[in-house]
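can u do me a favor
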């Protein structure tokens, strides 16, 4: 998630990442069976708040001409609303309890998109690239689980969540503190590749 120097708004990426971290921090104990499945209803208010923050952050990123970050944040906002809707409708017994047949395809499409966007993250600090890799792992293995019902895929996806959260904390702290102090406080690592103008 790049800096927003010379743009009308400061970089909203950290806010979008932080709410994603809150959401995944709640999802992780439920996904791994360390908390009862009923606790997933906490994802409803978290998802509503998070989707609004990510929507606003995505729009600001696009206004700042950050096409990749803006679109990723908007997609995450939509994904959070999907999570909210499913958890709420399942808790109210309006939606069938098992929606894996369609969830798998949605997760697979998101995973493929995220893998594609990971290539673009070769030109940003390595911490952001690490976030993308851990996110790719989650979406792809969750998709494989939903489509095959093979538990090993879900185990990989759910135990990847702490790595996603660690990368979120790393990137968010780095961007905010480094920008605030005007120097490197939290190293984010050099990009793997220089950015090339096309």
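np, heres the sequence
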């Amino acid at each position: 998630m790049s800096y927003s120097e010379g743009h009308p708004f400061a970089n909203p990426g950290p806010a979008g990442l932080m709410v994603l971290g809150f959401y995944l921090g709640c999802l992780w104990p439920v996904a791994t069976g360390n908390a009862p499945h009923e606790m997933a209803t906490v994802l409803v208010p978290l998802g509503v708040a998070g989707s609004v923050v990510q929507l606003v952050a995505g729009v600001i990123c696009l206004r700042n001409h950050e096409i990749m970050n803006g679109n990723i944040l908007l997609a995450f906002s939509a994904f959070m609303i999907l999570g909210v809707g499913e958890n709420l409708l399942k808790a109210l017994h309006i939606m069938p309890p098992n929606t894996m047949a369609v969830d798998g395809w949605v997760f697979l499409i998101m995973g493929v998109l995220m893998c594609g966007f990971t290539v673009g993250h070769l030109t940003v600090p390595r911490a952001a690239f690490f976030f993308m890799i851990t996110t790719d792992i989650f979406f792809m293995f969750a998709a494989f689980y939903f489509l095959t019902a093979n538990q090993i895929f879900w185990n990989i996806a759910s135990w990847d969540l702490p790595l996603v959260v660690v990368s979120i904390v790393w990137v968010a702290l780095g961007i905010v503190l480094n920008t605030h102090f005007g120097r490197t406080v939290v190293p984010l690592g050099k990009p793997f590749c220089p950015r090339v103008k096309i």
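Residues 12 and 57 are 5 Å apart (CA to CA). hope that helps!!
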